[in-house]
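User: Please fill in residues for this 259-position structure.
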């Protein structure tokens, strides 16, 4: 039962300073109605969770079939990553090269959906690291363990091959990438290994709720044709030259008239 906070002050002029019994009774009844609404909302949340769990199981075979079909298409996932406006913003050029070995992406939600999920990155043999699967796991703070109310995340330790640690290389690399980035310089593997702020992990949410749900829309994103700016600049220069010529001709005509 919810408890009533401080009641609104009654108009003492109309009530003579005495409590208004009709208003007090109405407030108590409203509070009871609100308790019923809260109970129904909680029950609805439980029912929605059950439905979502049911359809997660029904979707799983479709996702597995899609993953098998994706294997027929070279560089499917790295292309989808590069074409995604937010995810591509954290991809360094050498990381893009590494992600050519990404053969499968998989999002696995926990049985209790509200408690968290995992993102699995499956890799073919590549020159950068030994791992076949890299996993980033999110616990959203609904468990019963100590400190379980605090969201947390973990990620697989990357077994870099000698001289191929992209994190070390990128730290020593000057920031010359022309891609637009956030004010905080972060790359894909920076994101993967960083578990300091799981609550505000926008990249994980984009992968789980956007890229994973429909990667085809990013793989097939059409090339945007941009008109070259040089043509516009040339036209402007030409227009200025025409105006200059006209002004010059006008001055010569005036000189002839004076003669």
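Assistant: Residues filled in for all 259 positions:
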């Amino acid at each position: 039962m919810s408890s009533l906070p401080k009641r609104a002050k009654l108009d003492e002029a109309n009530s003579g300073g005495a409590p208004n019994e009709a208003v007090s009774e109405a407030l108590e009844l409203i509070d009871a109605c609100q308790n019923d609404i809260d109970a129904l909302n909680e029950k609805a949340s439980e029912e929605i969770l059950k439905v979502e769990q049911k359809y997660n199981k029904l979707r799983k075979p479709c996702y597995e079939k899609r993953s098998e079909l994706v294997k027929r298409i070279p560089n499917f996932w790295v292309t989808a990553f590069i074409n995604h406006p937010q995810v591509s913003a954290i991809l360094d050029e050498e990381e893009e090269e590494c992600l050519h070995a990404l053969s499968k992406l998989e999002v696995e939600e926990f049985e209790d959906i509200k408690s968290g999920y995992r993102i699995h990155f499956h890799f073919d043999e590549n020159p950068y690291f030994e791992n076949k699967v890299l996993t980033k796991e999110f616990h959203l703070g609904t468990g019963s363990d100590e400190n379980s109310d605090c969201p947390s995340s973990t990620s697989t330790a990357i077994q870099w091959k000698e001289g191929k640690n992209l994190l070390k290389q990128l730290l020593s690399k000057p920031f010359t990438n022309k891609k637009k980035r956030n004010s905080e310089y972060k790359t894909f593997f920076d994101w993967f290994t960083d578990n300091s702020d799981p609550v505000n992990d926008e990249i994980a949410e984009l992968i789980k709720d956007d890229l994973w749900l429909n990667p085809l829309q990013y793989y097939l994103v059409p090339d945007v044709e941009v008109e070259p700016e040089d043509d516009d600049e040339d036209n402007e220069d030409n227009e200025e030259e025409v105006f200059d010529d006209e002004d010059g001709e006008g001055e010569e005509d005036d000189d002839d008239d004076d003669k």
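For context: Residues 34-72 form one domain.
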